[in-house]
Backbone:
């Protein structure tokens, strides 16, 4: 009896230069013995030939370097978005192009609720694409006048609540005078709540107050199903609160034999002094196993560009909005970076605006003087507005960049017209410049902010097309091969896993994305349409729709 | 619960401005008030060890019935849990992170049913603030914190030196002329200035002890125009840093007035309240004559 399996495929894209393509890959003990022709591999000894992928294309399993397991629980709410989006069960929810369509879907979900007091919540509503659309409590009152209903905008910054929800919060009254609560002609709030703080009074009435970090098994499972559907075999949870019950759940679920993805959670810097934070992630690192890698820290340095909370350098926002918000003080940042370098703890830093990026570059440069660290790979996450000089400096400092390629498609038009204007919109998420600067590059989706789908993310970086079809900065486009590398070896590099994952070669884990078409053979504009059969993780096949 | 909303004071200011020192000072001089303190910065619980009676996972029990906890993931839920405590805290103090702008949170709190925003207090380090206000990274944050304050505590005036203190005063005056401003060495501020005076409502009522500051008690003899009173208390010319008390308005109804800097609020009075308004100002800074005219009485 053999413990070697040789998978035969139509084509295997290995992502290694000395043997870019193969037809067979041999697997033993969950790891790759080698790839090549059947003759090349037969010398390893007796094998079982597995031909189920004979008409498929294998790639290294995709690595998503910036996502959130919250994508799993997000689907407990009603999808109200403009774009088609696939749920964990493979159902594609059509994008909704009118307020009436949104209300119809909410009404259908409402009718399916058995508990008459249960709140109903929707997500991803995006009126930016519906000029003139009115969406206030009056519209949501057409969904229910007896239960609380609320819908979160795609930006995450605006919540719309119905009259019942407002009444429960004591907000359906005259005399409210607050910029976050616009009033209607009747002098009562419209139910449109501007900004995350404005939600404070109402969150618990609409089912949006429950802790986000419980990592319930059902939510993690939903998340993993999406991973399999998109060919993703390694994915981050960036950042996680990681309270003890959430960690316990995560450790247990990821150890189940049929758990299909390697999860890499980074703990948020919030809630602990730097010294305790380092100790905590070192403790967490000890809980790691094959399919769960703990031990990193994620720091939020600023907010978001489309929410006007990112920190920008001069000349700031195109529409004149005041500069954004710092989420960490420079002294605090310095202390965490110094301690992390000394303890060899990896840190990933959310910087959307170029001023936030600059603060990190300067702070890390100084910290490295004190604690030289030849291979720290601290990673700038999003890093959307970094210019060429910043990307060169990042590379010199040994940093990686994980750029938010999906933003070009989903918010490119807003960036062009409102947030940063045409010039900076054309060089946002500058993948070409990053590669030319020698910065190790990954690209990401930030699910649930945009949908999980590494091939779509690669398509964004290759084509730089906005949702309206405008090509934003063709000079920053990268090749299909470069983009495929970014979603495999590139992202693995940012996680210190490139020696273990990200290519199909001897010694690496047998993690594959199983594709119906060859992404290097289709037109670059069709990269996003390449169909995914499922994945192989550690030599075990997971077909989409069966996990 | 039909209790009146829990008063909330926001305590903002950059790292090192002295928020922790002030919190500990307030806890030491709570004078029987049950304070609940919510802390945020770096997430630790920076309470002096001798004040701590017990601590569990989420909450620290302090001397005198006070408690302290971190803001955590969900401020709304934390507030709800504190409001539901028995006995309920008398005052809630939220220490914001060093880079937070208190304005948005203040706005949101002002609309929550269980709590009522009492004041936004921002601590400004007199020694470092003038330079930080020009910092390319932090300048606008420091300036916006000052602009969003009702009451500004200039800390470390002793370390700033005379010229430095003048620069800090000028910074604050230029950014926010209407703010009430006090200066404090090592957090030593009369608690009544931060948390509001507690007029003892009865025949023996007296102005509270406010070391280093003047306080006056007015008992208006006749009904007052509520709007005119509110405008007057907010007028910097009278020197009122903080005011609280009950008066009869010109419809004959009892009203509670609470003022901090330019923020003056009118609301229904607590049960059993009798007329009497306490005002606090800097030593020698209150315009007693102007105030007496405002209240329609002779001072005292």
Residues:
């Amino acid at each position: 009896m053999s413990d070697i399996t040789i998978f035969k495929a139509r084509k295997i894209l290995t992502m290694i230069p000395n043997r870019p393509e193969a037809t067979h890959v041999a697997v033993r003990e969950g790891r790759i013995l080698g790839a090549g022709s059947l003759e090349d591999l037969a010398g390893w000894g007796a094998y079982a030939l597995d031909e189920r992928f004979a008409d498929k294309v294998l790639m290294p399993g995709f690595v998503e370097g910036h996502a959130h397991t919250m994508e799993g629980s997000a689907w407990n709410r009603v999808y109200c978005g403009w774009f088609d989006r696939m749920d964990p069960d493979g159902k594609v929810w059509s994008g909704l192009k009118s307020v009436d369509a949104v209300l119809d879907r909410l009404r259908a979900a409402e009718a399916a609720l058995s508990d008459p007091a249960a709140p109903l919540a929707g997500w991803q509503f995006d009126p930016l694409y519906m000029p003139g659309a009115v969406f206030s409590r009056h519209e949501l009152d057409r969904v229910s006048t007896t239960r609380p209903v609320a819908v979160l905008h795609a930006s995450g910054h605006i919540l719309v609540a119905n009259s019942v929800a407002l009444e429960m919060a004591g907000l359906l009254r005259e005399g409210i005078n607050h910029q976050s609560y616009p009033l209607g002609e009747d002098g009562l709030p419209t139910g449109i709540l501007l900004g995350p703080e404005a939600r404070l009074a109402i969150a618990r009435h609409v089912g949006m107050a429950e802790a986000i970090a419980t990592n319930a098994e059902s939510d993690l499972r939903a998340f993993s199903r999406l991973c399999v559907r998109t060919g993703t075999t390694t994915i981050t949870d960036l950042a996680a609160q990681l309270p003890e019950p959430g960690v316990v759940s995560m450790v247990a679920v990821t150890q189940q034999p049929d758990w299909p993805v390697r999860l890499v959670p980074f703990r948020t810097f919030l809630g602990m002094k730097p010294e305790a934070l380092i100790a905590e992630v070192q403790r967490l690192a000890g809980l790691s196993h094959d399919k769960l890698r703990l031990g990193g820290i994620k720091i939020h340095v600023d907010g978001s560009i489309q929410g006007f909370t990112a920190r920008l350098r001069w000349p700031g926002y195109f529409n004149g909005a005041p500069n954004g918000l710092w989420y960490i003080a420079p002294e605090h940042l310095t202390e965490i970076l110094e301690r992390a370098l000394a303890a060899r703890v990896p840190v990933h830093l959310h910087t959307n605006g170029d001023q936030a990026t600059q603060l990190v570059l300067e702070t890390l440069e100084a910290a490295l003087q004190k604690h030289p660290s030849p291979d720290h790979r601290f990673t700038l996450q999003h890093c959307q507005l970094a210019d060429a000089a910043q990307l060169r400096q990042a590379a010199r400092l040994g940093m990686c960049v994980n750029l938010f390629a999906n933003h070009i498609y989903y918010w490119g038009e807003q960036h062009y017209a409102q947030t940063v204007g045409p010039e900076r919109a054309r060089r946002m998420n500058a993948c070409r410049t990053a590669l030319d600067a020698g910065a190790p590059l990954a690209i990401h989706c930030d699910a649930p902010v945009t949908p999980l789908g590494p091939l779509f993310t690669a398509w964004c970086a290759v084509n730089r097309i906005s949702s309206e079809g405008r090509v934003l900065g063709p000079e920053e486009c990268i090749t299909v091969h470069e983009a495929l590398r970014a979603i495999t070896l590139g992202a693995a590099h940012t996680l210190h896993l490139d020696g273990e994952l990200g290519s199909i070669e001897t010694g690496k884990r047998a993690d594959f994305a199983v594709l119906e078409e060859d992404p290097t053979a289709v037109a670059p504009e069709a990269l996003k349409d390449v169909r995914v059969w499922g994945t192989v993780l550690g030599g075990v096949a997971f077909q989409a729709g069966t996990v | 619960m039909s209790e009146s909303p829990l008063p909330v004071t926001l305590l903002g200011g950059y790292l090192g401005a002295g928020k922790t020192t002030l919190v500990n000072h307030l806890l030491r001089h709570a004078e029987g008030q049950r304070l609940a303190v919510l802390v945020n910065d770096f997430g630790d619980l920076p309470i002096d060890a001798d004040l701590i009676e017990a601590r569990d996972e989420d909450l620290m029990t302090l001397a005198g019935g006070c408690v302290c906890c971190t803001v955590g993931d969900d401020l709304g839920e934390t507030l709800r849990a504190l409001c539901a405590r028995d006995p309920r805290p008398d005052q809630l103090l939220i220490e914001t992170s060093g880079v937070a702008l208190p304005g948005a949170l203040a706005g949101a709190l002002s609309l929550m049913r269980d709590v009522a925003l009492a004041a936004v207090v921002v601590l400004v380090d007199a020694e470092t603030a003038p330079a930080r206000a020009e910092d390319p990274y932090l300048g606008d944050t420091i300036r916006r914190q000052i602009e969003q304050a009702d009451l500004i505590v200039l800390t470390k005036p002793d370390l700033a030196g005379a010229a430095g203190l003048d620069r800090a005063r000028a910074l604050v005056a230029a950014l926010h002329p209407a703010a009430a401003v006090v200066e404090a060495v090592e957090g030593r501020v009369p608690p009544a200035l931060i948390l509001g005076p507690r007029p003892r409502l009865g025949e023996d009522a007296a102005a509270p002890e406010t070391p280093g500051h003047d306080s006056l008690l007015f008992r208006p003899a006749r009904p007052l125009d509520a709007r005119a009173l509110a405008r007057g208390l907010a007028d910097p010319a009278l020197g009122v840093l903080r005011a609280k008390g009950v008066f009869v308005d010109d419809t004959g109804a009892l009203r509670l007035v609470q003022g901090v800097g330019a923020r003056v609020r009118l609301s229904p009075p607590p049960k059993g309240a009798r007329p009497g308004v306490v005002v606090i100002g800097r030593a020698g800074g209150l315009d007693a004559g102007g105030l007496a005219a405002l209240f329609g009485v002779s001072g005292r």
